[in-house]
Write a structure and sequence with these properties.
By secondary structure, this protein is an alpha+beta fold. The chain has two helices and seven strands, in the order E-E-E-E-H-E-E-E-H. It is globular, with a radius of gyration of 13 Å.
Length: about 130
């Protein structure tokens, strides 16, 4: 299964959502999700960010590809993580999140879903 995750930055902080659904319900995560049939990964990450945060964003670059078979308890997923630029909007909590918040890279929450802490650390290295 192919997924995308987005690293959205504002004033040097990374945007995370607190998941409202399993897996990892109640954990913080990067906004993202599954790539739909017929769309590019760049289209998918922009769409997922819009659906989960109401932000219109543009992918700036690929942080990395993450393929550990154990990264998602639902099955083997491969994710492409992108850094995105906000084009317009203010981050809003949508249906898939109970909270939404920007965090300093040095002050991330304890409960982070999937392998998103590694992705965030890798993104920090390329910024």
């Amino acid at each position: 299964m192919l997924t995308v995750d987005g690293i959205v930055l504002r004033k040097g902080k990374v945007l995370l959502i607190k998941r409202s659904t399993p897996p990892y319900k109640g954990h913080w995560a990067l906004p993202g999700g599954f790539v739909e049939h017929g769309e590019t990964v760049e289209e998918a990450v922009a769409r997922e960010i819009k659906e989960e945060t109401d932000l219109t964003c543009e992918p700036l670059g690929l942080v990395g590809v993450y393929s550990d078979p154990k990264r998602d308890p639902r099955g083997h997923t491969i994710t492409l993580a992108y850094i995105l630029k906000i084009i317009r909007g203010e981050a809003k909590k949508m249906a898939e999140a109970t909270e939404i918040k920007y965090f300093d890279f040095g002050d991330l929450p304890e409960k982070i879903a999937f392998d998103h802490e590694k992705i965030i650390c890798d993104a920090r290295k390329v910024l």
